[in-house]
Amino acid sequence: MKKAVVALAGNPNVGKSAIFNALTGAKQKLGNWPGVTVEKKEGICKYKDIEMHIVDLPGIYGLTASSIDEKIARDFILHNKPDLVVDIVDASNIERNLYLTLQLIEMDANIVIALNKVDLAESKGYKIDAKKLSEKLGLPVVPTVAIRNKGIEELKRAMYNAIKTKIKSSLRYNDKLESVISLIEQKVVEKRVLPEYPSRFVAIRLLEGDEEILRSANLQEEVIKQWILQRS
Amino acid sequence: MELMRLSELREGEKGIVVEVKGDLKTKLLTMGIVKGTEVKVVRNAPLKDPLEIEVRGYLLSLRRDEAEHVFVERR
User: Fold this and answer.
1) CATH superfamily of B3-74
2) Looking at per-residue confidence, does B48 or B56 come out higher?
3) What is the pLDDT of residues A118-147, one digit of tens each?
4) Contact (CB, 8 A) for A190 and A203
């Protein structure tokens, strides 16, 4: 049976544990992330000819590595390169949640979105068009209510298909921003800045002034500014 | 409209975020408190610390010294 590593990512309180339990059932393993007292949950979900090893990442709002939880999640996605990331989005709080989604896309991850708590979103009066969202993001979106086990079979199927086909989102920002991103990305590729990471991800983080990335790339923010100014 | 700190808004008052400063800047931006976002003070704990705000349809509790670093225009 083919093995695949699947990471579960999402904001705190989106029902990540409920999704984890629904996917893995009783086959769970509990431990810690190496070196830190942050709980690590792992489990197995078998679907057709694939054995999916599910890793539950800490609940996070973003991937800026500003907290230990964010650093764990970021390092896992960048270094371990899971075959798939299931991004659990709280439908009742979709705007804040989609920020993490964008960061995952920037990391060039293979992503399936579990749009959880759709029942709560409806009771709040939200009407979310999952199909439209999927088109806009360029990613599969599966509505779920994990605590009622709704949408879990559909989610498993979407995960399976994504592992087989590896769909990458081609979502891009506005032209002005993209022109600066591609400028920095060019420099990143030329100068071989952190070549083990996706170049677009490095470029965006440098543009943002991400301290950790600047430090590990051994670059000053001033240098990035110079790159941008040199353009004209 | 006047520029003030988020911590200076009274219960029920709304403001538009103008600038975020301080150590928590990245964290607050990540949570959707960016320039142009509407925030509403829902309620204050005794001594105004912490305070609860509504932003982008969810509730968030902030310490007073964190809210002092968020500058808003009162609506």
Assistant:
1) Ferrous iron transport protein A (FeoA) (2.30.30.90)
2) B56
3) 999 999 999 999 999 999 999 999 999 999
4) no
Residue boundaries of the structural domains of chain B: 3-74
Give the residue carrying structure tokens 């500014």: A225
Q: What are phi and psi of A58, to 5 degrees?
A: -60, 150
Contacts of B32 (CB under 8 A, 6+ apart): A95, A96, A99, B55, B56
Across the interface, of A67, A96, A124, the residue whose CB is closest to B31 is A96
Question: What chain A residue is nearest to B55 in terms of C-alpha separation?
Answer: A96
Counted across chains A and B, CB pairs separated by less than 8 A come out at 24
Lowest mean pLDDT among A25-29, A71-75, B4-8: A25-29
Closest to A227 (Cα-Cα) out of A170, A197, A198, A189: A189
pLDDT at A195: 95
The predicted structure's pLDDT at residue A116: 97
User: Cβ–Cβ of B30/A95 closer than 8 Å?
Assistant: no
Select A2-165's CATH number: 3.90.1150.10, 3.40.50.300, 3.40.640.10, 3.30.1490.20: 3.40.50.300
Nearest CA distance, A108 vs chain B (angstrom) = 19
Q: What's the gap in Å between the CA of A61 and the closest CA on chain B?
A: 6
pLDDT at A232 over 60: no
Q: Is residue A72 classed as helix, strand or coil in its secondary structure?
A: helix
Residues of B in contact with A124 (CB under 8 A): 57
Subunit contact A62:B30, Cβ cutoff 8 A? yes
**A61–B contact, CB cutoff 8 A:** yes
